[in-house]
Amino acid sequence: MHELIHKNILKYIDANDEEFLFFTSKLEKLHLKKKEKLIVAGENCKHLAFVNSGCLRAFISDEQGTEHIIQFAVENYWISDLYGFLTGNPAIYTIEAIENTDVLKISRDSLEDVFRRYPKFERFFRLLIERSHVNLQQRIISSLSDSAEKKYLNLFEKQAFLISRIPQKYLASYLGITAESLSRIKKKMFKKE
Predict the structure, then answer these.
(1) Would residue 78 count as lying in a domain?
(2) What is the per-residue pLDDT across 148-165, written as a single tens digit (0 to 9) for each?
(3) Domain interval for residue 78
(4) What is the pTM of this model?
């Protein structure tokens, strides 16, 4: 159950068995069925979650009820509503399972216990948050300046595995385009080959 998260952590810090066991003792296992929510916008966000298996989506809903997908998280990804988690304010995002999903989650208090005992884990989470911030900046820039076709090509180049795994309506929302536009882009791309 902890092999994947162990590899994830070792990519950033050198944690020995004692340190890793203490960290994993703070984790809670959670199984989500398809469509089940991990976090609901407006509620308190008390955990960070690591996806051990399955797939989640983080989204916001506008005043018309249209969903705008911000992030997908598959195996070996971390996900949360960082605004809610870090500030203690209500969550902005809803995070929902796209398929049956197993996560390992850690509460803010448990994470602080880990940081006090093994400060190297602060570095690990700082690096995760830095990487998340950079990725979010790149998404914002792409969203504001790239054509729909270029957005799809970027997704195809960087995260092609999502294209076959995520329903088209969710991919379109993530790219900020309609499902019909996404179909046209895909059709046009396949004609070129």
Answers:
(1) yes
(2) 888 888 888 888 888 888
(3) 3-117
(4) 0.90
